[in-house]
Design brief:
Layout: E1 5-8, H1 15-24, E2 29-32, H2 43-55, E3 59-61, H3 65-83, H4 86-111, H5 121-128, E4 133-137, E5 142-143, E6 151-155, H6 169-172, E7 189-194, E8 203-205, E9 208-210, H7 215-218, E10 220-227, E11 230-238, E12 254-255, E13 259-262
Parallel strand pairs: 1-2, 2-3, 6-7, 7-9, 11-13
Antiparallel strand pairs: 1-10, 4-5, 4-6, 8-9, 8-12, 10-11
Amino acid sequence: MTRQVVVIPDLHGRPDLLDAALAQYPEAYFVSLGDAIDRGPRSMKVVEKLLALKKEGRATLLMGNHELMAASGLRWYRQYLGTHDMGDYRRAIEGFRSWMRAGGETVRSELGGLTLEQFPPMLEEYLQDLGRVVYVTEDGEVHDQPPATPSVLIAHASPPVRHQQYPDAMTAALWLRPFEGPFPMPDGVVYSVHGHTPVPVPARMGRHLYIDMGAYETGRLALAEIRGGSQPKITVLCGRGKPSLGSKYPRFGEPVSVQAVDLPGSPPR
């Protein structure tokens, strides 16, 4: 590959782990799997850093289900400002409340208050232009559509597939769980990389690789370095947190080998 590409799973408000990833791979191009916000203590700092990486041409930012929830209420509210339709306003409030219940309350606490009427411009900027699925080819280039050459598919939860609960395939790619797969993939896709479903250790199910280790609470952030058609190199950054909480996550598929890197202040392994 002519460019080093590293996939970062669900950060959930942990800018310290994002900083550690940048230090571990100072020359890499990053693909964020989404769910960068909510649950953890400093979502806005993560958003700030990811936007800076994107503007520097060093990152592709994908949407997770938490970004989808955060954007839903805001989208309906912006529409209401144009239509003054109370149905749009009701959907905006319902969407906002659903986001708060699912983890957005931590963002509101972090900001000292948050409403649709006074939505943080930086967070809105982040939510406006997030991809759903990308494909990385052997040269390290990132494509929005399946390329003609072999590639690695990267999406938050699963490859885009039609599902009875999510008729839109791109929405399904933000929500589906491993037990609902394995999923069909476009021709030429060698394997896929996902977050969304926390795992005690990175695991492979068929040709799907799951790397979300619940970093916001365990302090374990798994990074997948894409290496053409071969299996990715997985580095687990071990930072501040409670790694024992990973034992509650489901075990499935086949564990993959990882290289662990202890960060300053991390608990003993």
